[in-house]
């Protein structure tokens, strides 16, 4: 028979009128393997099952579940096990989740080691609950936003002189999840726990606050809202290369691109609450529609100048024809010659320079207005893409920095893309 040394922890529970003290004693003695196996078999065969333990504790002993275990108050340790977060409703500003709630406290009247239990810990009751909590949603950075939702847990009947609510101090994360939670639109990136003492008319209550920080998953909105905008704007620029004679085709391209953006913008906005401030996606869509509208405005200017050039060309032809006719009349035997006197009126020097300074802007505008339709198209081919590139750099830099600032306010390491 082989002997070996085993170390068994022995717990001595000493009951006093106030708390319960636990003493851990390590005893060293030699036992045989057969003795250990026999003791385990006897204990397993003769131990009291959990339902029997609960029945003996709660029935026939006069135990009152509404009575506080200690007159000086009791400390309740709380922890949440988040099973799933089912939805975040942006219209009603709330979220739903399924969770398990564990409450732990020490009650001397429920001491059951004398019943030879099969397990040292007994679960009296447990259930899975679905809760709904408020969210502080702000859409200024939508869809590059980071949102937070809250859950407040407190005692219903007892103030903090009777029941002291505390997060479980034995674990680093009293609110934990079974796995990484990813919703269709959001991803849970942080859980923060705090305790707040709230004043009520009946006294002070301990409130356990759990803050859930969510980051919106941007890729879906980029594919559905931002990416289709680029082809629509690029198509509107094709009209600059079609020439001044293809006005119907150019008009069709611009109008169709503008209608597509308006329809796309409406589909996105119908799923968002009505807010009184400008969102990031509002800036994007409005500026994009402005680019297409400006391309239509350029088309109108080109069309107007093209018609004017055609009219002026007809006038020049008629004038040239009339001049040739006049010369023929002068050369004819019965023609009458006419002499014209040219007069030049000189303006005062100071008046001339003053007029030049006042008309400087008008002169520039007149020079630009005198550009030919072909020149306007050539300049638009360069100007529109350059302005759109500058807008993209400014837009993404500004809102991405805003997102980093908000992530820093939540004390996050960085925002996911």
UniProtKB/TrEMBL annotation:
Transmembrane segments: 218-240, 252-269, 281-304, 379-398
Protein localization: Cell membrane; Membrane
Residue ranges of every copy of the Neurotransmitter-gated ion-channel ligand-binding domain listed in the record: 127-217
Residue ranges of every copy of the Neurotransmitter-gated ion-channel transmembrane domain listed in the record: 231-319
Family matches, as CDD domains: LGIC_TM_anion
Signal sequence range: 1-22
A Gene Ontology biological process term: chloride transmembrane transport
Keywords attached to this entry: Cell membrane, Ion channel, Ion transport, Membrane, Signal, Transmembrane, Transmembrane helix, Transport
A GO term for molecular function: transmembrane signaling receptor activity
Topology relative to the membrane: Multi-pass membrane protein
Pfam families, sorted: Neur_chan_LBD (PF02931), Neur_chan_memb (PF02932)
Domain of life: Eukaryota
Name this polypeptide is given: Protein CBG01074
Organism: Caenorhabditis briggsae
